[in-house]
């Protein structure tokens, strides 16, 4: 697949309903994407990240069950996608589609061929704003998702599994000083490709020199 940098950055979508749950993803392809991810910047060049790639069917199902439980609680809350902009007629239809696709992924998470957990070695989580900490993981995780897109794979950034972080850590043997930051379902996607998403105009969110 040949794709320009601009197209890659503007068409890498959260793929949920279009993940191919029946097609095996070669581990070597996942390794390629992670090798690229390791080139991302990280605070103080600490490189404290770890990547847990889950292909075992039983373990994927167990993680999917935890994720589904967390989704159901989230869906019933005021923060769910369907309720987020319920008073904005211009965004209701879009949010309903997002909610439906998120529900589909929650139902099928355990069937996705590869689950990638991005983690950081953290002896203790700091109090207050943790942006500096997780800023050492997020660029690498996004690089992984971009590399996957360039290779015909779909991904989605998810974090609802963190409600069961301890249980998943025990399932996978993750040490106590390693914290999970993201769960990235990975599969070939169905259909041809993806387009740009509708976003608010830049000038609505841009502030120069002051708010």
UniProtKB/TrEMBL annotation:
Family to which the UniProt record says this protein belongs: Belongs to the nitroreductase family.
Gene3D superfamilies in UniProt: NADH Oxidase
Positions in coiled-coil regions: none
Protein name, per record: Nitroreductase family protein
InterPro entries for the chain: Nitroreductase, Nitroreductase-like
SUPFAM superfamilies according to UniProt: FMN-dependent nitroreductase-like
Stretches assigned to the Nitroreductase domain: 11-178
Keyword Oxidoreductase on entry: yes
Keywords, alphabetical: Oxidoreductase
UniProt keyword Transcription present: no
One Pfam short name: Nitroreductase
């Amino acid at each position: 697949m040949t794709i320009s940098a601009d197209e890659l950055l503007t068409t890498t979508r959260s793929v949920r309903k279009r993940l191919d749950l029946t097609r095996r993803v070669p581990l070597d392809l996942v390794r390629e994407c992670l090798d690229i991810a390791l080139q991302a910047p990280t605070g103080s060049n600490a490189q404290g990240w770890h990547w847990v790639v889950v292909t075992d069917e039983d373990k994927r199902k167990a993680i999917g069950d935890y994720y589904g439980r967390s989704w159901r609680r989230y869906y019933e809350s005021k923060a769910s996608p369907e309720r987020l902009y319920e008073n904005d007629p211009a965004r209701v239809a879009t949010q309903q589609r997002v909610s439906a696709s998120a529900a589909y992924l929650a139902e099928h998470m355990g069937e996705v061929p590869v689950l990638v957990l991005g983690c950081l070695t953290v002896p203790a989580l700091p109090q207050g704003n943790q942006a500096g900490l997780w800023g050492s993981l997020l660029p690498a995780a996004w690089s992984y998702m971009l590399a996957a897109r360039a290779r015909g794979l779909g991904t989605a950034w998810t974090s609802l599994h963190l409600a069961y972080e301890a249980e998943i850590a025990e399932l996978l043997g993750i040490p106590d000083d390693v914290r999970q930051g993201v769960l990235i379902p990975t599969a070939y996607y169905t259909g041809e490709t993806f387009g740009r998403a509708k976003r608010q105009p830049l000038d609505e969110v841009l502030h120069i020199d002051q708010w």
